[in-house]
Amino acid sequence: MKEFNIVLAGVGGQGTLLAAEALGIAAVKDGLNVRVSEIHGMAQRGGSVVSTVRIGENVLASTVLEGQADILLGFERLETLRNVKYASEKTIVLMNTERIPPAELAFKKLKYPTVEEIVQKIRSFTKKIALVDASQLAKKAGSNLTQNVVLLGALAGTKLLPVKTESLLLAVRELVPEKHVDTNITAFKLGYKITEEARHVN
């Protein structure tokens, strides 16, 4: 495999960086060349966070060029839209429906767009969009803090990743605290089931 590019976009506190790290560890376990980076972002809760994971023999740098993402994994609706510049007609967008309005919206008295408005804008870049209610699935797993792992599971369920699902699960086990492993594995499996069942992305 020459090159596979994943862009993860979310808000500080959503576990975007852990998800990117898990993908990187899984790639290493599978003996693949990988580059992981945090493009910009505030680790503090509420700031925009964007990470990239690039896998493949042609990958030298960690940055993804605009229009070059194979997958845009959106942890928050507005952040997904903000980073749609990485998408093209080949890109699959997996978007969490969670809404975390940034402080600047209230400050500027701007309206937070609806899911429909966001999807419509994304469709001008790619028609391949799947929505995931990660919050509902995370609560079902036992903790709302596992939304990032639900999304990783949903990503694995597309069967598009160059890494093995088993390797990704092992990476999750290594990264989360031992007492939360079972909850996170449940969250992963719930996310996986959602996209596996819906395999064709509308």
Report on the structure:
The protein contains eight helices and six strands. By secondary structure, it is of the alpha/beta class. Strands 2-3-1-4-5-6 form a six-stranded mixed beta sheet. Helix 1 packs across helix 6 and helix 5 packs across helix 8. The mean pLDDT is 91.
Note the main sheet. 6 strands, mixed
CATH architecture: 3-Layer(aba) Sandwich
Radius of gyration of CA atoms, rounded to a whole number: 16 Å
Low-confidence stretches: none
Give the termini separation: 25 Å
- Please report which band the strand proportion falls in: under 5%, 5-15%, 15-25%, 25-35%, 35-45% or over 45%: 15-25%
Q: Biggest sheet, strands in spatial order?
A: 2-3-1-4-5-6
The succession of helices and strands, N to C, reads: EHEEEHEHHEHHHH
CATH homologous superfamily title: Pyruvate-ferredoxin oxidoreductase, PFOR, domain III
Give the overall shape.
Answer: globular
